[in-house]
Amino acid sequence: MTQRKSHWRRYRALYLLIALCVAPVVASYLAYYVWQPTGRSNYGTLIDPQRTVPATLQLRELDGTPFPASQLRGQWFMVTVDRGHCAEACQQKLWNMRQVRTATGRERDRIDRVLLLIDEEPPTTMLLREYEGTRVLRADAAQLRSFLPLDAGMALEGPIWLIDPLGNLMLRWPPGAEPKGIKRDLDKVLKASRIG
């Protein structure tokens, strides 16, 4: 019995050191496999069931040239809907999309930005210059309403949408979405995805 006590006293520091080294590994294992959080971890709303961008969606370039909806594939597309005069809320969405794309660093080439205009008013040259790189297309509001899932009372012009490289509508960020939340979601899908 005294031998055991003297053994413990002699190696107590070693046992404490081992316990300190092993504790974080055990804690991380338990946190990952046993105590997983049950709440959703994404900032935006996942679109479920998935919706593929319909081939019948009529899109046009600003000069009137048809733009096939099938071209909304092969990349990740951040898409928003608004009007040609592009008021302050519209410009804020465009700014957020540009900043989030830039903030993704080397992954930014996997992301394109699209503004769909639902009226015939021409956007200003200043707006087009300010958000150069954003593809501006015209679309039919009724077609978009039948395709884009909106909550009750939500305007078509409010959210930012994410389309995956296979042409599926994947996420909807709410009106006034924070760039940090959008970027966090984008980082996750870009890291998990092997396509686009």
Structural description of this entry:
With 196 residues, the chain is an alpha+beta fold. The protein has 2 domains: 1-36, no CATH class; 45-192, Glutaredoxin (3-Layer(aba) Sandwich). Helix content is 38%, strand content 22%. The chain is built from 5 helices and 8 strands; from the N terminus they run αββββαβαβαββα. It has an 8-stranded mixed β-sheet with strand order 1-8-7-4-5-6-2-3. The model has no long low-confidence stretch (mean pLDDT 89).
H/E topology pattern:
HEEEEHEHEHEEH
**Coarse morphology:** elongated
CATH level-3 fold name of the largest domain? Glutaredoxin
Kindly report the name of the CATH homologous superfamily of the largest domain.
Glutaredoxin
Q: Mean pLDDT, nearest integer? A: 89
Number of helices: 5
Strand order of the largest sheet: 1-8-7-4-5-6-2-3
Biggest sheet features: 8 strands, mixed
Amount of beta strand: 15-25%
Percent helix: 25-40%
Low-confidence segments, given as residue ranges, are none
According to CATH, what is the class of the largest domain? Answer: Alpha Beta
